[in-house]
Amino acid sequence: MDTQHMRYTVGVNPSPAEGELSVLFSGEAQTQPLHQMGPAIHDYYLIHTVLSGFGRFIIRGKTYECAKGDTFVIFPGELFSYQADERQPWHYIWTAFVGNSAADLLTSLGITPEQPIISGCIHPKIADYYRQLHDCFQSDYVLELSNLEACGWIRLLLHQFGALKRQLEVSEPDRDNAAEHIIKQAVQILSLQYTQAISIEQMSNMLGYHRTHLCKLFKQSTGLSPMQYLLKIRMDRAEYLLSTSMTIDQVSSSVGFADALYFSKKFRKWKGQSPSEYRQALRTGPKRSGGEVDEMAAYGL
C-alpha cells in the first residue's frame, strides 16, 4: 500500500480485449488527507464514485466539489486533477475502460467533459457493479471469461449512471413522456405475458414504479386498472379460442387461468354466459366471414 492511501485494492485485467468496450482495471481506496492526482492526462476513461468523504475534481479549468454519491469522469486526452479533502478525505471506488464505442456511448448518456459529474449515485447496485468488476479479475477464470464478465458489469454500471443522470435532468414535459413510456411498457407486458401469473407488485418492480402510482397512471391513460386491462386481454382471447376445437381446460390454461372452474366463473361474469354456452351460441349463430378470420389470424388471434 502506498503512503497516500489508508486502504487500497485494485483488480487489473491481464489481457484486455479489443472491441466496443474493454475494462482495464477496477479498484477501491480510502485516501489520506490532501491526496492528489495530476495535473495529468490519461489515455483511457476513468470513473470514480465517492462512497464517503469529500474532494475536488478539476477538468477544463472548472472545479467540482464532490461528496458522497457523486461520480466524476476522466476522459482520455483531457487534462485533469483531483484532490482529497484535508479533514474528511474521500473513500472512492473506480474503474477504467477503453473501447471504440466508449465516447459515443458516454455522450449518449449525457456524460461529457463539459458534464463530467453524475450526482445521486448512492444506489447499492452501483458499488456492487464496481466490486464485481474488481472481483472478476481475481477469479480463476480463463482470460476470455473474465473479459466477457467485465464487459457485462461495465455496461450495467454505465446504464445505471445514464438512468441517474436522466432523472436529474428531466423536465415536466419529459416526465409526461416518461410516464407515457412506462404505460406503454406496462401494456406490452400485459399483452405478452397474459398467459402467466402477473401481479401488480411484480409489474411495478419490473418498471421501477410504486404500485399505487403505476395504477393511477395506468387508469388515467387506459381508463382501466392494470388488472382490469389484463382481464380484458384474457377474455378477448378466450372468446376467440372458444371458437376453435380446444377444450375448456385448454382455453383456460391458454389465457392464464390454472383453474378451469375459476376461469368459467370469470368468463360468465364477463359475457353473461358460461364458456360452454358461449361456444354453443357461436356454433348456432352467424358464421364469421373469411376476411374476419384472416384478419384475426394476422394478429395472432
TrEMBL record:
Q: Quote any Pfam family the record assigns.
A: AraC_binding
Which superkingdom, per the lineage?
A: Bacteria
Q: Which CDD domains match?
A: cupin_MmsR-like_N
Using the record's annotation, list all stretches that form the HTH araC/xylS-type domain: 184-281
What are the recorded GO MF terms, alphabetically? DNA-binding transcription factor activity; sequence-specific DNA binding
Question: What's in the keyword line of the UniProt record?
Answer: DNA-binding, Transcription, Transcription regulation
| Name under which the protein is recorded | AraC-like DNA-binding protein
Species the sequence originates in:
Cohnella lupini
